[in-house]
Structures are given as structure tokens and as C-alpha cells.
Design brief:
Distance between the termini of chain A: 45 Å
Oligomer: homodimer
Order of helices and strands of chain A: HHHEHHHHHHHEHEEHEHEHEH
Largest interface: A-B, 54 and 54 residues
Strand order of the largest sheet of chain A: 4-3-2-1-5-6-7
Helix content of chain A: 40-55%
Number of helices of chain A: 15
Strand content of chain A: 5-15%
Chain lengths: 340, 340
């Protein structure tokens, strides 16, 4: 028998909970210091108290405390383009070396030439086709190692920092606060499941089994040396966006979340599914309205709609009507990044 | 803050671990009393000790302690036919009422007539088509309720007991023993994921998020009353058998198991995947060689091959060659069922 209480708590609940088990952090200290006071912060604290107090009519048993978070635009920056697409672009030269016919396609020509304006004009269909060509064909362990290596050295164009520095500090605090209260935190992303898994534990404290994302089919076959490998195929098994989000949640968890956080039209169904459950359910959605500290985009602010992180006016209206909490980055977040 | 240590341990590790956390069960008491002494039991105990002793070169960190179990024929009886198929058959009359054209098909005629010989002769393709027609079209919560209600009252033909009584007592002890040592136990079944989830927690102590099975596609749309529902579609998203098992394991867990237990050709790839990992990996496979207490089938015993639980000679040879532990029900299990 080798069961270590501390190690176990740290594993499943993250550092904050281990701390809380070991000595109980003072209840007076603010668990969300990067959040400004206001309706959004109040809603979070009220929800957590109501669902974790055994005397509350809205108490939720530990096993059912599931919180789901979109990633791009919800946990980290998604502009000017999803990080996974930057990774896919970085792999284009070596893929074209093996498949020279791709260089004749417009999308690959734009990427290879480094023409930023042309790249920005690629359609979502073209981007996904580049993802399919560059991020499949290898075994899952090789892929994880390649993502890890790339993300360790790549830099974003605006802050010139590792992409993993561009996670939102208020959300890291929220993840920790939920976990300290017995919630299991899941990522539910339209991005590739295995891409996010390569860094989710280190960056968010979220282990691989709690990452739901777009899934590629896998084949199980011998590699060059005869060793059996799980190979990433180009077929998309689950497009974990829009209605694919409740679908992915059911397939991987089999429980309806009590808490969901998103930032775009791709998160609508996850929020609807969460809110349609009985008892206390909190849905939250971020408004990117801080062009100075982050980005400002989407028609909710009267700005032109964006290919990345679409937030149509109808979604805003639905949020108001259905009681989702809209979070203004500008007003609700005291600090956006840890490096500020 | 409302974190209860005991409740938490009971949730994630099951009752045995909570007990062990609370007071430490005596290390002298045998955790596997329904197993006879011998190479199989020795292999289990040796594996658990080696992977949980921090001083051992084969130590496995808590997060990586993943054990996967096939269900049919590994955790409970699969003869004369999978329980899920019995459930599907029970639904045929009401489905035919709604779709009378099905009554013209040979498979449905056999089922409706109650002709056991004809039913036994249905091909696996016919059986799966009946499953597709009878176990889809409703929302996931309705389906769970219907499985629960049926399995609460149905009886198996031989022992005249609830199917959930036909779980193997030695395996319940093994699941508890692994969990008490920090292993998370998963079911990885060719059966329907949501079928097994309806009773897995009550019967095996395995929560829904630790059940991987054959997955049907889901749509998210309004029901008759306008409420949004997750509807089970007929499209099979993942056939969680053979190579589908390592695939399902990767999609849901994203970690390679250290321990895997199966009983048929459908488990071969799961065992291969498990054993191909670095460090300590234990693969086990059950031989159904006890016709008196359970069933005896499969060519490994020189018996004709069976549609259910195929165990070809080549699989036995592979087990010997690759060091999988073959468990003889007759010799290794002192007691098979709790009701004995």
C-alpha cells in the first residue's frame, strides 16, 4: 500500500486543494484577486458557495461537480489566429518537402511565402485542411513531443512571449478556486485534443483525461521498427465545436456540467446544455472588449465580426435572456496576464 | 469551502480506499480472498507492490496508475449471449409496433417468435443491426433510465438472477485492491458505453467517466416540448473493440494503461498496447474453462469457437509468448459469484 494523501490531492485537485487539505488557507483571503468586484465575481462566489454547502438547497455532490472551459479566447489569447494554426503553419515546409504537389495550392503558397495578408485571408476550410495535412500521420507520442518542443520555443507576434504565457490570470485563479472546492475542471475545445493535452497539465493544472477536443481517428499498427503505434489519421472523429461540445462532454464525462465558460458562438451549445440541467448551473461568457490590454473584437461591441472567436449579436441577446453571466475583460479583470 | 476528505476518497477510490485512508486495513488480511494462490494471484500482488513502492525501480506515479478491464466475459458472464443483446431483444416488440416493416426481416421474425434456436443463429451483423434499431433515437437520460429499469427486473436464463449478480467476485476484489493502491479502474468494452454506464457505479464502483465503450453519435436538438436534448443516433462513432480499444483509451484517457484485463480476441490490441509501454505493465486474460460453475468455451480448450468471446488458439499462443498472465477460472478462482 502506498497511498499518499497529499500526493493524491495534488494530483486530482491541483495545488490549491492540497494546500487547503494540509492546512486550510484562510477563508478571508480573496481566491480571485485578479477579478474586480462586481456582478461576475459575485456570481462565481455565490455559485460555489451554494453548490458546496451541504445545508444549501442547491448543494451538488462531489461526483457531480464538473466545470467545463473552452480554451481559445476563454483561457488564453486566440488572436490574431489560433496557436494550433501557427503550429500547423510552422510544419508546412517539411510537409511540402515530402508532398511537393501541395506547393501548387494557394493556401500553401501563401504560407510558404510568408505573406501575412494572404494568410489572414485563408478560409476556415483552408486552415483546417492545412491542419489535416500537417498534424496527422505520426504516432500520438511523437506528436505530443513535437507540440511540447515547439510550444517551448515559439513566440507570439505581439508580446514576443511563449504562447503559454498568454493564459488569462483571472481564469487560472478561477480554475484553482473551483478545484479547491471539489470541482473537476475540463477543457472543451474546438482545437485538437492532443495538441492541448501536450501542455494542459503544466499550464492549467488540467490532466490529459480532462481535455476534450476535436478528435482525429487513430489506427493501431506497426511502425518502421515493427513496434505497434497509435497513428493519427486525417479522418475527424469528433468536431468538438458547437453541437460537438455537448456530444464530446457526454462521450468523455457522461455527466452534465454544472459550470461552463466560453467566449464565442462555438460555445453556445455547451452553455445551453449546461444551463438546461436541473439545480444550480452557471454559464459564463467573455466579451473581448479590451483592445489596449488584449483585443477588442466581435459585433457585440459593434465591431466587424471576426473569423476567430465569432460572437454574434444574437449570442449576446441569448446570454441576456438565458441568464449567462457576460464577463467584460475591460471591467471585470483587474489583471489579464501574470507577466503584467 | 466544503471539501470532505472521506467523501472525496470514497468517490474517487471507492470504499476500500476510504477505509484504508481512515484507518488502514491490516496489511496481513488477504485483499483477494476469492483467488486461489498460484501464479496469477502472485503476478497481481507482485505488480501492485512493484508499482506502488516509491523505492521500487518500477514505481508508477499516482497519475499514471491506469487499469483497464473488458466487461463481457471479464467482469461478468457473457454466455449464452451478451446482456445488452437481451435488452435489445426485449425492446423489439415496441420498435416493431412503430416500424412494422421490420417484422418482415428474418432477424426480427426470429426474435418476435421467441425461437431460441433461430435467435442463436443470428449473425453478429444482424445482432448489431437490431441494437442499432432498438437502442437509439431517444435522449441519453431517457436511455439511462430505461436500462436501469430493465436491468433491475430482468433475470438471466440459467441462475434466474439479475444479470448484475453475475459479476465475478474475484474481479470485484481485484478492482477494489487496485483502487486501494491508487489505480483508477476503467471499463473498456465493445458493448455500448451508455448501456454500461447505467449500472457501472452501483455494480463495479466505476463512475460514468471511467466507462469507455462503443460510442454512438449524438445530436443536440429540441425534443417535443422544445427542451434541448442529446439524442442517440444510429451512426457508430467508435466501435470499441479490437483496435478500437486502444483508440478509445487514448481518446478518453490519453494515457497508456499499466494494467489490462481481457478474455477474448477483441481484447488483443488493448493488451498489446498496454504491454508495449515502458516500465511495469501487466496483461491478464481469462480462460473460460469451468463449465460446471460458469461456462467452458473457446478453442483454447479444444472446444469449438464461439460467436461470443472468441478466444482463438493464436491468442493463447500470443499470451504465452508475450507474457500475458492466463487466468483459469477453474483453477485460479476459489469462488466465482458472491451468491455462491
Amino acid at each position: 500500500m502506498d497511498l499518499r494523501r497529499r500526493e493524491f490531492a495534488a494530483l486530482v485537485l491541483g495545488g490549491a486543494a492540497a494546500l487547503s487539505l494540509a492546512g486550510r488557507a484562510g477563508a478571508e483571503s480573496d481566491p480571485l484577486p485578479s477579478w474586480n468586484g462586481g456582478p461576475a465575481k459575485d456570481a462565481i462566489v455565490k455559485f460555489v458557495r451554494a453548490t458546496t454547502d451541504a445545508a444549501s438547497p442547491e448543494f451538488v455532490p462531489l461526483a457531480e461537480r464538473i466545470a467545463t472551459f473552452d480554451q481559445d479566447g476563454t483561457l488564453w489569447v486566440e488572436q490574431p489566429i489560433y496557436t494550433q494554426i501557427v503550429f500547423a503553419f510552422s510544419r508546412v515546409p517539411e510537409v511540402v518537402k515530402e508532398r511537393p504537389e501541395l506547393a501548387r495550392e494557394e493556401a500553401y503558397r501563401a504560407i510558404l511565402s510568408g505573406d501575412r495578408a494572404a494568410m489572414a485571408n485563408l478560409s476556415m476550410g483552408e486552415l483546417l485542411s492545412v491542419v489535416g495535412a500537417t498534424l496527422t500521420g505520426m504516432d500520438v507520442e511523437t506528436y505530443r513531443d513535437e507540440v511540447e518542443a515547439w510550444i517551448g520555443q515559439a513566440r507570439d507576434p505581439r508580446w514576443k512571449r511563449p504562447f503559454t504565457d498568454l493564459v488569462y490570470q483571472p481564469q487560472i485563479e478561477l480554475l484553482n478556486y473551483l478545484r479547491a472546492n471539489g470541482y473537476r475542471t475540463f477543457i472543451v475545445t474546438g482545437g485538437g485534443q492532443d495538441f492541448v493535452r501536450a501542455y494542459s497539465e503544466r499550464v492549467y493544472g488540467i490532466p490529459p483525461e480532462q481535455v476534450i477536443g476535436t478528435m482525429f481517428g487513430l489506427s493501431f499498427k506497426p511502425g518502421a521498427d515493427g513496434k505497434l503505434l497509435l497513428i493519427r489519421e486525417t479522418e475527424v472523429l469528433l468536431n468538438d465545436d458547437e453541437a460537438g461540445k455537448p456530444e464530446g462532454i457526454h462521450l468523455v464525462i457522461g455527466r452534465r456540467p454544472h459550470f461552463a465558460f466560453g467566449n464565442s458562438g462555438g460555445d453556445r451549445e455547451m452553455l445551453e446544455y449546461t444551463k438546461a440541467g436541473a439545480g444550480a448551473r452557471l454559464g459564463m461568457i467573455i466579451l473581448h472588449d479590451d483592445g489596449a490590454r488584449e483585443y477588442s473584437y466581435g459585433p457585440a461591441q459593434g465591431l466587424p465580426d471576426s473569423k476567430i472567436g465569432t460572437f454574434p449579436r444574437a449570442l449576446y441577446d441569448q446570454a441576456m435572456k438565458d441568464g449567462w453571466i457576460v464577463v467584460s475583460m475591460k471591467n471585470d479583470w483587474k489583471r489579464i496576464f501574470a507577466f503584467e
